[in-house]
Amino acid sequence: MIDTIFLWIAAGLTLAIFSFLYKDNPFYKVAEHIYVGSAASFWFLYLWFFDVEPKILGPFKEVFHAYGFWGMWAHFGATQWILFIPIFLSICMLLRFIPPVAWLSRWAIAFTVGMAAGLGITGALQGYIVPQTQATLLPVWSGDLLTSFNNIIIIVATLTTLVYFFFSREHKGIIGGFAKIGITFIMIAFGASFGYTVMARISLLIGRIHFLIFEWLGSLF
Amino acid sequence: MKKEVPLAITFISGFLLIVALFIPHEPFGSLQERFNDWYIIVSGFTLILGVDSLILYHWRKIKRKEKEAPYSIILISTFVIVLAWGIYSGVKYGNPFAPASSFLRYFYTYMFVPLQATMFSLLAFFIASAAYRAFRARGLNATLLLISAGIVMLGRVPKGEEAAPYFIGITLILLAIVSVLEGVSRVEVYEKIIFFGLAVVSIIAIFPAAWFLKFNLPRLADWVMNVPQLGAKRGLFIGIWLGAIAMAIRIILGIERTYLK
């Protein structure tokens, strides 16, 4: 019975959102506000149960259960004490709500920005630039005509695309020629990515229509 | 104090992570993993700021009795109900995302997934109308965009091979028309020869291309994705990441300070 009620709720919400294709209307607005409200709660709960609870509260739980609130302080190890740094920074982030000490939230922002910058450098080098450069160092002649042709296309596409985004010199002469080849490859890549995105959206649309026809209407007949 | 301490925190946290990459021994060895956890925790708290801002915005709308206030009531009520449901499931099952939890079974399956999937599937219609404007074959680059998108879309659907010959036929006719128009508008003789030649080649290529696509379309779509698309995307992303590194160095050294405003 509960499943049937929720099936109808799901169908109603799906149809309410599709009603936007006609024009903006109260049904769509209700569904949209339900989505925003529920998504905010969902991600709040997700943050608590997957980040805060296991990463902050988890290490304190065992000691708390063994020695109680007053006894646990004497039994904290390095794992527990070091966690006071992110706890302090997280509290700093929330101090934005108290105007006289709102400036302390900058400390937390500075930490996240510094972390993002550090991770950006190491992550970009380790995870992208070095492996992708290695993958582009392909043999121009591999013994097979088609593979060699593909390798040349990949090398030329990568290099000319990089040249297209090289703005330290005016795009004239050889650089201009390479940049023109680069934009050609970029257009092919954008077209292919667009096609790929369209197919992903269409598959979502097919999924929703399949739900309406086979799961919702199918449950009626 | 208000600027120096944040700058020092940024420098230390960013610099230590780079040091950890080059010295994979204690105390630096586990630093990256530990900092990553802290980063997730601290940046996660920004969500609380976002939720507060959302709720306050709608609360003000209700207080002012604005025209859209009933929708704000729905939003805040949904937020409270879902949060209460999640907490109840968390207490009862240990985690609201546990497989047996009613929160996961009913809210996630019958509300969150349909709302999210339908919202994103709406984009299929808007993408189609955007494509109509972007894909008009106004020049060589727009034509290439059209052709590669067409190949990928048709190559990844069942029965795409059957539609492909008609698609390529129309595309090549369009290419021929564009080439003729370009050729007419050019002044140099060699440019006229190139564009008129392209028009002739496009017309001659219609039947061989249609025949080729009828039997090779999925392979061609894979080739577009794995060769020219891959090469160009690689170039794009290497450029993006080089830019990101330059920006990260500016932030760590305190040259870029906009985040402190």
Describe the structure.
By secondary structure, chain A is mainly α. Chain A has a domain at 140-221. Chain A is 81% helix and 0% strand. Chain A has helices at residues 2-18, 26-72, 78-82, 84-94, 105-136, 145-164, 173-220. The longest helix of chain A is centred in the C-terminal third of the chain and has 48 residues, at 173-220. The two termini of chain A are 16 Å apart. The model of chain A has no long low-confidence stretch (mean pLDDT 90). Chain B has 261 residues and is mostly helical. Chain B has a domain at 135-226. Chain B is 82% helix and 0% strand. Chain B has eight helices and no strands. In chain B, helix 6 (160-185) runs antiparallel to helix 7 (189-226). The mean pLDDT of chain B is 87. At the A-B interface, helix 1, helix 2, helix 4, helix 5 and helix 6 of A face helix 1, helix 2, helix 3, helix 4 and helix 5 of B.
Please count the helical segments of chain A: 7
Distance between the termini of chain B: 14 Å
Largest β sheet strand count, sense and barrel closure of chain B? none
Shape of chain A: extended
Kindly state the number of beta strands of chain B.
0
What pair of chains forms the biggest interface? Answer: A-B, 111 and 122 residues
Low-confidence stretches of chain B: none
**Radius of gyration over C-alpha positions of chain A, nearest whole angstrom:** 28 Å
Oligomer: heterodimer
